Amino acid sequence: MKDVTKQFGQKTAVRDVTMKIAKGSAVALLGPNGAGKTTSIAMMLGLIRPTRGVVTLFGGDPLASEQHAHIGVMLQGVSVPDRLTVVETIQLFRGFYKKPLAIDRLLTAAGLEEDARVMANRLSGGKMRRLQFALALAGNPEVLFLDEPTVGMDVTARRHFWDELRRFIASGKTLLLTTHDLQEADLVADRVIVMNKGRIIADAAPESIKMQFAGRQISFVAGVHLDLQKLTKLPDVIEIKTAGRQVTIRTNNSDGLLRTLIMEQWEISDIQVTGGGLEEAFMRLTTETEGTFV
């Protein structure tokens, strides 16, 4: 995508977005509802055209059938053909490709071995998503586009899904997904793009984003004579929160700050150092920042 804008009437869903997804990368596209994630994926797939800018897929037109032969797609709100069993549905989709994955492999990837003869339209919501995952993998794609793939799945199914996705990534293939499961996105993605109000506001490795916006936290119990005002002026202190005598400091240099607290003999006890997660960084990015981080 290069300088892409998409408008629906007076509403601008995507505004001046440029991004390039490299082969073999695992990219999590994150953002609050209405940020422009689904619209961006729809343009990459050729489902809708940009109002302005250029979108290419494998260097060509996203609408071209030869480009679609190398991708797998799992979108939201997609139905399957009526009056077919799970295995018949998968076989139907395998027939669209020259070198599809084996049917047994697809049933295993989706965790639907025991449901192979069940009518597809009678599956629960979670199992329907698993079937859609099998259909996305049917053509042995080079790139997977997944839009909120685990919606409706139970804990066991989600764990199985993420294990399969890690196998896909480990094979050197490319992934682009949107998800609200930030913990799992943190584990599988090597790049995180955060959108808000139609714009990209962050684009970096997960660790870089966490360090910049979540940082690390030092928490401790403060002594009765500890001067909080003086504490806020120490180097590397970004933010201080208190709950009674419990103090939590957000910092980008936990080692340096902890060394200062100990060397200067601050009146503190029960010290803990923890790393901020992607969820905390995401919340700060989408609620507190106006600029961009790349």
UniProtKB/TrEMBL annotation:
Give a yes or no for keyword Transport in this entry.
Answer: yes
* CDD domains given in the database record: ABC_DR_subfamily_A
Cross-referenced InterPro entries: AAA+_ATPase, ABC_transporter-like_ATP-bd, ABC_transporter_ATP-binding, P-loop_NTPase
UniProt GO MF annotations: ATP binding; ATP hydrolysis activity
Range of residues in the leader sequence: none
Would you say which domain of life the source belongs to?
A: Bacteria
Instruction: Supply the alphabetized keyword list.
Output: ATP-binding, Nucleotide-binding, Transport
* Residues in ABC transporter domain copies: 1-222
Q: Which Gene3D superfamilies match?
A: P-loop containing nucleotide triphosphate hydrolases
Q: What is this protein called?
A: ABC transporter ATP-binding protein
